[in-house]
Design goal:
The chain is an alpha+beta fold and 362 residues long. The protein contains 13 helices and 13 strands. Helix 4 runs parallel beside helix 5 and helix 5 crosses helix 13.
């Protein structure tokens, strides 16, 4: 990858020209060379993508997009909450075109703040209700169950915690390594789910805060990024974490990490991950092309087979058995409450619960 001087962690690639329609089934582009329609619908020369999907996925789709379009791609890989904060800060001068990957709650927050541009994709009919915003400010790309992850060399399947509350057992003190929650949509969702379990009936987060205090007591470290967390759990510096099931499976099968997972017996939050266009994006036509390109059935199958993402599209065939045969008990969650309360809950955790000495920065 080439390092972009303006965006030091971005990658820029040159991509070859092709028609948008033949590439991904999106909106029609002009087909007559030099026609006014072609000029009107011509894609811009580059696109900027913000995404938490990691360099493996982003690099893969760089290469595939390269074969289709004469467009330079710049991507920035960071946590979904960090993306939301960055797009907020850039509202008056947007830098990103596409936001690819985040829980639906993050997108709903962005929608309410006027940060997203509605776009109904060509494949809209393949998304069931609940897998897209009613006004198409975002659409779902994958479903992500959250799980208890453990190092199978350090802990046997029989010993591993079977449910969320078992993580609070004093025997796990200094065995838990967690991705720093404030920057992570995944971790914010897990923490919010632990609060919501009692909040839904009591309308009081107190018991949830008590639960997080006990988890903090057992936590050895809050890692600055997922890679730090993965590496330390793999090395046995801590034997447990909580994270997204697809990532755990991918790390086990692709990188031979000694990881296994437990689906909590009482149920787990299942996130809808999504994609959205940024309001005021500097490259809107290229943004639509990318939006369509990474959500074709072919792309969904690649994401399932190579990157362990469970698609939201209902027309993807031949999915791996780990998707078709895995039973997930989903928690009953009012995601609107998460959207409204998550910032407040996480601020309380950060200011009143977290042991700051356990926060490890890059």
């Amino acid at each position: 990858m080439k390092l972009n001087k303006k965006l030091s962690v971005m990658t820029t690639v040159s991509l070859s020209a092709a028609l948008l329609l033949s590439a991904c089934g999106g909106s029609e582009q002009g087909s007559s060379s030099g026609s006014s329609d072609e000029k009107e619908n011509k894609l811009e020369e580059k696109i900027v993508v913000y995404s938490p999907h990691g360099k493996d996925i982003l690099s893969k789709f760089e290469q595939q997009f390269e074969a289709k379009y004469n467009v330079d791609v710049e991507w920035l890989d960071m946590g979904s909450q960090e993306i939301l904060d960055r797009i907020r800060s850039e509202k008056n001068n947007p830098q990103a075109d596409v936001w690819w990957g985040a829980p639906s709650t993050n997108f709903d927050q962005a929608k309410d703040e006027g940060l997203l541009k509605p776009y109904e994709p060509s494949y809209a009919s393949s998304l069931d209700e609940g897998f897209h915003d009613p006004e198409w400010n975002w659409s779902g790309t994958s479903q992500t169950p959250e799980v208890i992850m453990y190092n199978s060399k350090e802990i046997s399947k029989e010993e591993a915690p079977k449910d969320w509350d078992e993580l609070l057992d004093p025997k796990w003190k200094d065995e838990i390594i967690i991705r720093y929650p404030l920057a992570s949509g995944t971790m914010r969702t897990i923490f919010s789910a632990m609060i919501y379990r009692d909040y839904k009936d009591s309308n009081d987060p107190a018991k949830g805060y008590e639960w997080l205090e006990k988890l903090d007591a057992n936590t050895k470290e809050y890692s600055a990024n997922p890679e730090m967390m993965y590496n330390k759990v793999a090395k046995g510096e801590g034997a447990l974490s909580v994270w997204a099931m697809p990532d755990v499976v991918m790390l086990k099968e692709n990188k031979n990490y000694p990881f296994e997972f437990i689906i909590p017996e009482s149920g787990t939050p299942v996130l809808t991950e999504g994609i959205a266009l940024v309001e005021g994006a500097p490259h809107p036509k290229a943004a639509e092309a990318f939006y369509e390109f990474v959500n074709t059935p072919e792309a969904a199958k690649i994401l399932a087979e190579e990157f362990y993402r469970i698609p939201t599209r209902n027309d993807v065939e031949g999915l791996p058995e780990w998707i078709t045969e895995t039973e997930i008990k989903s928690m009953d969650i009012d995601w609107k409450v998460f959207q409204e309360k998550s910032d407040e809950w996480m601020k309380h955790w950060d200011e009143n619960i977290k042991n700051g000495e356990k926060e490890i920065k890059e």
